[in-house]
Amino acid sequence: MTTAPDAVGSLVWARRRDSFARFWRAYRVRRxxxxxxxxxxxxxxxxxxxxxxVGGDIQSVTRAPGGALEPPxxxxxxxxxxxxxxLLGLLVWGARVSLAVGLLAAALxxxxxxxxxxxAGHYGGVLATVLMRITDWFLVMPALVLAIVLATVMAHSxxxxxxxxxVTSWPTTARLVRAQTIxxxxxxxxxxxxxxxxxxxHVMSRHVLPNVLPLVLAQTTLGISNAILTEATLAFLGxxxxxxxxWGGMLQDAREAGAVSSGHWWYLAPPGIxxxxxxxxxxxxxxxxxxxxxxxxxxx
Length: 300
Known about the structure:
- The protein is an all-alpha fold.
- The protein has one domain (22-56, 76-297): Orthogonal Bundle (MetI-like fold), CATH 1.10.3720.
- The protein has helices at residues 4-28, 31-48, 50-53, 87-123, 125-140, 143-153, 158-166, 171-185, 188-195, 200-236, 247-256, 259-262, 265-293.
- Helix 2 (31-48) packs across helix 13, helix 4 (87-123) runs antiparallel to helix 10 and helix 5 runs antiparallel to helix 8.
- The radius of gyration is 23 Å and the shape is elongated.
- 38% of the residues are buried.
């Protein structure tokens, strides 16, 4: 016999499956968002299978199979870098770092922004004033400049880049989540929950958080493209981890090798196109998610 907790759990999961099915039906009619999702799925598959397809030795400069700066050929479809390493393999391997940094940095940024926004919107008063003034300070300061400062004073590593991007790009999320929290807490069912004895934790976790999660999801999707672009910028400026291959690091290596002045376009074009493609794909997905969660935006 099914117990009451089991029945409640089954009902909750059934509602979640139904919500996801409705979301997917609304999402798949948006062709731009679907194209972005398919492109991201293909890039993610290539990145995940990189150890099998290109191997870890692709990063070694002592076992490079080609000559320096060879143009594209049948053996090396995208040419080689200044060390003789095939650029196609480096591009595939670099996708792992660029995507990982973008995802982790966006997740950190949205987590900080969501926490600050929910706390400010729920408690109000002095806490909200302090949090919003800190948010305003970060908003008026150029995020890229702050990220460069953090990446400069800290050790050059992937985690430093993630931290630098995450702690400088959360204010917009905080503002949006705070406004949504205030709107949610003004609804009758939240007032009823408080009247029945629901405390701060209950209201924030059971009523506020589920209602702001769609907004957080949309912000995360849109923030990943900005995080990837910022990571590429930091790596291009020489502030990334020099021991790993990323698309921004490839652009930095191309600049140091004089690819711009010497006309070695095959060294510059692939990582630049890859960065633009991934950023565009995440942006298309984010806009589609926004349109699904907010029907007022219409079908795109």
